[in-house]
Amino acid sequence: MNAPESLPLGPVGQSTDRIDGPLKVTGHATYTVDHDFPGLVHAMPVGAKIAAGRLVSLDVAAARAMPGVIEVFTRENIGTLYRVAKASGVMVDERRPPLSDDEIAYYGQYIALVVAESFEVAMAAAASVTAQYEARAVDVSATSVADDDMQTEAERGDPQAAFDAAEITVDETYVTPTETHNPIELHASVAVYEDGRFTLYETSQAVVNHKAALVQMLGVAAEDVRVVTRYLGSGFGGKLWPWPHSVLAAAAARALGRPVKLEVTRAMMFHNVGHRPRTQQRVRLSADRDGRLTSLRQDYVVQNARRDEYQEDCGEATAYLYSTPNLRVTWGAAKRDVGSPTSMRGPGAVPGLYAIESAMNELARKLEIDPVDLRLRNDTLHNEDEDVPFSSRHLAECLRTGAERFGWRERNPAVGAMQRDGRILGWGMASASWMAQRLGATVAVTAQANGRIRVATASQDIGTGTYTVLAQMVSRVLGVALDRIDVCLGDTALPSGPLSGGSMATGSLVPAASDAARDVANKLIQTATEGDDTPFADADPDSLELVDGQVRRKGQTDGVGFMDILQRARLSQLSGNGRSGSSKADPGADERSTKSFGAHFVEVSWEPAIARLRVERVVTVIDGGQILNPKAGRNQIEGAIIMGLGMALFESADYDPETGAVLNSNLADYIMPVHADAPELDVTFLDHPDYALNELGARGIGEIGLAGLAAAITDAVHHATGVRVRELPVTVEALLEAPLPDGQ
Ligand code: MOS
Question: Which atom of ligand 1 is nearest the CA belonging to 236?
């Protein structure tokens, strides 16, 4: 799409330090658990020790008798907590309110809540609670679903006939394990109940939705709940929707009339607040001798909770990524004795593209076609699933640029054929894609007589740089320097703003922030023409403009600063408002497809004698539209690559088949990459603004860096070792199958 007639980008597109950086590094940023109030008490949930069955009895006598314990809440005394209506559109993944019956559906499900004067007493008292259960046999497997329970997600042509007729085919099954979000900041709630009103300090990626959910669960009026998340110690999707601890903290605060702080334990992070579910995906590809896909099928099974309906949409990118006349994607949920899954960074497309891109690499080997070439031969500028063109698609340029930067043409495809410094090298690559949409947003921009500009929306900054990009957007329109702009976020008392998820927040905020800034500029101009104490008395507002924070006559260089305008008019402030809707309602929305694209190139090194595998370097090229803050943007992609490295090589939450508990529910046993694992990173953003979603041409970049990376790594592992790992993560045990090369 072409650029709309508009202002120059100004500070947009410039690498900009985070405006909230100094607050964070000096410890002045207020995270949820930093909130403290007079009379505040501490709550700790008690988790079930079975994963399936019924709670028969609870013994809380020892807890109640402990000095410092204020109350122990159970189903008997917590009061009524309500469900969130599906019809309301308000999101929550675990729908059953906590403590609402005696059924246990997953290990660690809350069965009681202890409240005490101190955190330590609350912990000790929670540990002293005992329970009797009627347990059922646990099932945490997730391998298959009856054919009748599989649903069709996308379909075109006749993939079966094309597959049967093809000379070259791939038919493999890929498995991704349960992965757990492990932000450094634990989930927490600090609930204050005063005069019938709740103020809830939450770890939330979506305060507006959180409020709407808590209003329903607590059974109160919308104006009686305010949700605040000023800063978030990351969320990765785990903090998008409310989890049971939040309503428990609020209910306890209401019952006791004292502020309640509840911070879950790291072990609870593995059981009670969602995870990326295990997936098993069968992928079938067929191609002609020239490498053109004649069919593509993906049939996937996702592990799910017994009571909930989360879909890990592994088919998210499948139906549009490559051109093929014949395609089918089907899926089914394997309901098991585990907690509800939820979105984890790049939900759906990330495990989905691991499978699809792995199969593409296997197909390239069979065809003896370079894997970059194979993708180029199947590239398309048309979304064949929706039968509409892409608004902007530069996958081919991502592939070519990445190959060039990586030095891909030096590749010798024979297994084990490349060496450096006595180590075997493996090279692998994959494509990436992620959706792009705009959500509704409202933003207020206020010019103040103290010379500062205030930008306000309820949206939150989850650590990605939202404070900073909002200041950049407003600075561009008003010409006021970033250090005179204050951004207020993360509070439902502010104008309603979008969730921070799906890589949608930045692109969603552009129109509303720009319009709000233009609105206040127009009001400043109008004000400058009114009253006695103004150099522009009776001027036609159309003859004036606002440049560099000053109102001036068009074509002239000197003007009057907005602070002066406001003071002369005896105004404390002047606000402008901007509002925009969902991109789905845009004119022409159904005539184009808006997605982001990318490519990863990976080098691993392999030392067979000691079974040591390392990711040495990653080259990534992203086609994400205009990048508003390349410094923060690069940080997003680099973080996603490290997360993808964890997905490929380390991460797996393992359920005990006997108890249904996660065996490695701590940061010692759940392995994640550390600094010593970090490869050399080379991130390039292509310069193709896409004006389908907003005037800045921005799409979004939080998640795409993770998509495809695991497939590039496992293909590099195959190139180095000859071992094709189709179940993540890659383990040393799997690589011990690798043949030793000659002379070792
Ligand atoms: Mo992302 S999983 O939408 O926070």
Answer: 4
Query: Nearest C-alpha to atom 4 of ligand 1 is from which residue?
Result: 237
Q: Give residues (CB < 6 A) around ligand 1.
A: 205, 235-237, 240, 343-345, 347, 501-502
**Per-residue 3-state assignment (H helix, E strand, C coil) for 38-82:** CCCEEEEEEECCCCCEEEEEEECHHHHHCCCEEEEECCCCCCCCC
> What distance in angstroms lies between residue 20's CA and the mean position of ligand 1's atoms?
22
Establish whether 703 is a catalytic residue: yes
- 283, 285, 427, 291: which is closest to 367 by C-alpha? 291
Whole-number Å distance, alpha carbon 597 to ligand 1 midpoint, is 17
CA–CA distances in Å: residue 298 to residues 151, 334, 362, 425? 12, 16, 15, 31
Q: What is the pLDDT of residues 576-631, one digit of tens each?
A: 999 999 999 999 999 999 999 999 999 999 999 999 999 999 999 999 999 999 99
Comparing CA positions, the residue from 719, 721, 724, 725 lying closest to residue 741 is 721
Cα 207 to ligand 1 centroid, rounded to whole Å: 14
Residue 6 has pLDDT above 90, yes or no: no
Predicted local distance difference test score (pLDDT) of residue 246: 98
Return the H-helix or E-strand segment holding 516. Answer: helix 505-528
d(CA 238, CA 140): 21
pLDDT digits (tens, 9 = 90+) for 174-222: 999 999 999 999 999 999 999 999 999 999 999 999 999 999 999 999 9
Rounded distance between C-alpha atoms, residue 626 and residue 698, angstroms: 5
pLDDT tens column, 120-159 = 999 999 999 999 999 999 999 977 788 888 999 999 999 9
Residue with tokens 């041409």: 697
Q: How far apart are CA 17 and CA 629, in angstroms?
A: 9
* Amino acid in the structure at residue 286: S
| pLDDT over threshold 60, residue 161 | yes
Task: Count the neighbouring beta carbons within 10 Å of the beta carbon of residue 179.
Answer: 27
- For residue 701, the CA-to-ligand 1 centroid distance in Å is 11
* Mean pLDDT, all residues of the chain: 96
Residue 408 to residue 721: CA distance in whole angstroms:
19
Atom of ligand 1 nearest to the CA of 235: 4
In angstroms, the CA 190 to CA 229 distance is 11
- For 397, phi then psi, to 5°, come to -70, -35
d(CA 34, CA 186): 12
Sheet containing strand 103-104, edge to edge, reads 103-104, 53-59, 130-135
DSSP 674-726: -GGGPPEEEEEE-----TTS-TT-B---TTGGGTTHHHHHHHHHHHHHS----
Kindly name the residue from 703, 727, 733, 737 that is annotated as catalytic.
703
What pLDDT digit, counting tens, does each position of 292-316 carry? 999 999 999 999 999 999 999 999 9
Residues 6+ apart with CB under 8 A from 194: none
Q: Are 253 and 198 in contact (CB under 8 A)?
A: yes
Residue listed under structure tokens 């492990």: 182
> What are the pLDDT digits (tens) for 335-365?
999 999 999 999 999 999 999 999 999 999 9
Residue 531 pLDDT greater than 90, yes or no:
no
In the structure, what pLDDT confidence band is assigned to residue 741 with cuts at 50, 70 and 90?
Answer: low
- The backbone region for 360, taken as left when phi is positive above 0, alpha when psi lies in -120 to 50, beta otherwise, is alpha
